[in-house]
Design a protein that fits this description.
It is a single chain. The chain has 317 residues and is an alpha/beta fold. 35% of the residues lie in helices and 14% in strands. The protein is built from ten helices and nine strands. A five-stranded parallel β-sheet has the order 7-6-5-8-9, with helices on one face. Strands 2-1-3-4 form a four-stranded parallel β-sheet, sandwiched between helices.
Length: 317
């Protein structure tokens, strides 16, 4: 009997123990990111949608672990432009690689790929649905800055309708008794399915339409998001909501000392540049954590355990 294939597609069924295990794995990679654990392995990155941080951090993670990288960053430069189906692309690339990290514009594409691929699939973002590898680095960053994931006040701001990063974060945090504050214009409010999910899981949440110094005073984490132009069919609607919520430095006067500002990036203008100098700003370090989280994810799906990493003798200083 062959061992069951292990994918990383969603946080929907990930246990609390597994999340804490993955955080511990990422900590090991932060201590020593350069190793040869994946020497001889090939990682394929298939990006049907544009990406900077996610693609580069997956490819850097593979390179720093000694693997080789193949793939495409633009579907137009692949046989997709000739009409090749997702199924055929996945099956074909599975002949060449040991694991596939893929981003796709259709919700559920990664789940579908995981059902047909003989090798592990890592979801690097599917439409407005899920972004579990970003979620893993978000959880790692929250743990790193707060010393815990328990009982935190997490404020999600901006595009909560299409923002796949916030959808994944809600699912993952269900194990840790958070209180969420959803701050969005009504056009971009948190979808009902996620509010229903919160109710089913006993997750406390409040909704706000105003974004003021007073509203955010009790935050442990302020998670800003970009209003995503590419998800709007009506550009006039985009113009109307794109600058509704801008975090300015003068709004941070009464925030808690432990509060950190996160953002999955890229930012457009939702965080003023003077915030960058504020000690609460943490989004650049958060992006760096993407490397350690994705090293952990690649190793995990390939069957490399935390024990293997702790006993690893291939560390390159």
């Amino acid at each position: 009997m062959s061992k069951k294939k292990h994918d990383f597609v969603t946080f929907a069924d990930m246990s609390r123990e597994k999340i804490l295990y993955m955080i511990e794995m990422a900590q090991e990679f932060e201590r020593h990111p350069n190793r040869e654990l994946l020497k001889g392995k090939v990682v394929a990155t298939l990006f049907y949608e544009p990406s900077t941080r996610t693609r580069l951090s997956f490819e850097t993670a593979a390179n720093r672990l000694g693997a080789r990288v193949i793939g495409f960053s633009d579907a137009k430069a692949s046989s997709v432009s000739k009409g090749e189906t997702l199924k055929d692309t996945i099956l074909m690339v599975s002949n060449y690689a040991d694991v596939i990290a893929m981003r796709h514009y259709i919700e559920g594409a990664a789940q579908y790929a995981s059902e047909i691929a003989p090798i592990p699939i890592i979801n690097a973002g599917d439409g407005a649905h899920q972004h579990p590898s970003q979620c893993m680095l978000d959880l790692y960053t929250i743990y790193q800055t707060q010393g815990t994931l328990e009982n935190l006040n997490i404020y999600l701001v901006g595009d909560l309708k299409y923002g796949r990063t916030v959808h994944s974060l809600i699912m993952a945090m269900r194990h840790f008794s958070p209180t969420f504050h959803f701050i969005a214009p009504k056009e971009l409010a948190m979808p009902n399915e996620y509010k229903l999910y919160c109710k089913e899981q006993g997750i406390k949440y409040q909704e706000h339409t105003s974004f003021t110094e007073k509203v955010i005073a009790d935050a442990d984490i302020i998670y800003m998001t970009r209003v995503q132009k590419e998800r709007f069919s009506d550009l006039m609607e985009y113009e109307r909501v794109k600058n509704v919520y801008i975090l300015r430095r003068d709004m941070l006067k009464n925030t808690k000392p432990n509060m950190k500002i996160l953002h999955p990036l890229p930012r457009v203008n939702e965080i003023a540049y003077d915030v960058d100098e504020d000690p609460h700003a943490y989004y650049i370090q958060q992006a760096q954590n993407g490397l350690y989280a994705r090293e952990a994810i690649i190793c995990d799906v390939l069957g490399i355990t935390l024990e293997d990493i702790k006993n690893d003798t291939t560390i390159i200083e």
